Backbone:
């Protein structure tokens, strides 16, 4: 099933006309730091049709850049193939780049994808250095993180991302 995409300007027109609702699938801390007015928070790990408002309107799903929202759209469409679901192109970053307004909570937090990049980069660097200077066996740990990153890129599922999303600073 192909995911329908919607550009930010068209999404704004639909929202203003009352033809659509907007669902934010980022984590609570990301939503608190910056959000699109009227977006309902339903984190990607728990999004499901049963948790969405009962509506006959179009459902527009967004995240930071579009990846998590795309996965959420696939999940929602698998649960209800008749739902009219759209992925917001570029996520909230695309919305802001189109000159559309966002609300800032003043709280600054790294988006989840960047937190994962920092964690994986740090682990690969540390274990790579330990493998070189201490014991070559540490290189296996660096390979483990590389394999996890490869899996996330191929499947769209990132276990480390799910773990980091549960951390207290992301609540």
Residues:
């Amino acid at each position: 099933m192909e995911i329908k995409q919607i550009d930010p300007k068209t999404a704004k027109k639909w929202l203003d006309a009352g033809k659509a609702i907007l669902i934010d699938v980022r984590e609570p801390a990301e939503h608190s730091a910056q959000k699109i007015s009227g977006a309902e928070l339903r984190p990607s790990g728990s999004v499901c049709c049963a948790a969405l408002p009962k509506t006959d309107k179009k459902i527009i799903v967004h995240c930071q850049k579009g990846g998590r929202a795309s996965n959420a759209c696939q999940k929602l469409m698998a649960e209800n193939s008749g739902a009219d679901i759209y992925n917001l192109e570029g996520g909230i970053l695309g919305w802001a780049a189109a000159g559309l307004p966002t609300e800032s909570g003043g709280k600054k937090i790294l988006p989840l994808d960047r937190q994962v990049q920092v964690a994986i980069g740090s682990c690969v660097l540390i274990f790579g250095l330990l493998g070189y200077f201490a014991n070559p066996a540490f290189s296996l740990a660096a390979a483990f993180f590389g394999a996890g990153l490869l899996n996330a890129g191929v499947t769209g599922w990132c276990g480390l991302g799910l773990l980091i999303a549960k951390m207290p600073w992301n609540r």
Summary: The radius of gyration is 18 Å. Helices lie at 8-16, 28-33, 67-79, 91-97, 112-133, 139-155, 159-165. The domain at 4-104 is CATH 3.40.250.10 (Oxidized Rhodanese; domain 1). Strands lie at 4-6, 20-24, 34-35, 40-41, 58-62, 85-88, 103-104.
